[in-house]
Amino acid sequence: MKLVIQNVTFSYKSIQALKDVCFELKKGEIVSLVGPNGSGKTTLLKCIDGILKPQGGSVFIDGKRVSDMGLNEISKLVGFVPQNASSTSFPFTVFDVVLAGRKPYIGWSVKDEDVTVVTDILNYMGIGHLATRYFNELSGGEQQKVIIARALAQLPQVLLLDEPTSHLDIRHQLETLQMIHRLCKEMGLSVVAAMHDLNLACRFSDKIIMLKDGYIFAAGAPKEVVTVENIMAVFGVKAHVSLTGEGKPQVVPIEPVNAKSLQEIPCKINYAQAK
Length: 275
Description:
alpha/beta; Rossmann fold; four-stranded antiparallel sheet
């Protein structure tokens, strides 16, 4: 499997969100998209999934243009976990939520094969014991695993994740990313994840793509991309970057640059009067 993003451009009316974005991803690789808010990360994921149609360039999976595929065909190749998907209150059991991922394969009724796929995925991810629990009764970390399981039930070749660790505590962040890394390497998935946490992105990714204003500012191995200079140029933040024993960058942000200190901004709110 090979995912190719070729000169993808996309605009929202007068605002250009993506500008000639190009990269390739092979089977079993994890790439993280990093960059400030509004840099184009989510838009790029939606273009890959076919939710948005690029106004320039193309997305190819195994040489076939995504824009030429039908919805069912895309769903069998690409699994998408949108941001805050776990905040939706599904009044269904965990099994039913994950079974919804089998929609591209289900005809008039659910087959034994569909039940087997869902059961195997739940067990593989270590959440088989939650199958009969209601989704809206689970913790945030458990819900996130269920949403990822739903995407995996599509048996995709490409898994897209938009901020997969948002709203999770540090333990569940690590558990979720360790699970995604394991799935990628053992099942041969290609993973594209939009991430805000540079340290987590560096630790779990094979490649980093740093976006700025809709174009690729830097791309490559984490230690090549996540540097003091690039963080300053893209995020406007002074930072200290060191390498871990595994050769992965470790970022310690220091302060924003070219921004007024909060101490320099007079407070005009009269709290005493407000009370």
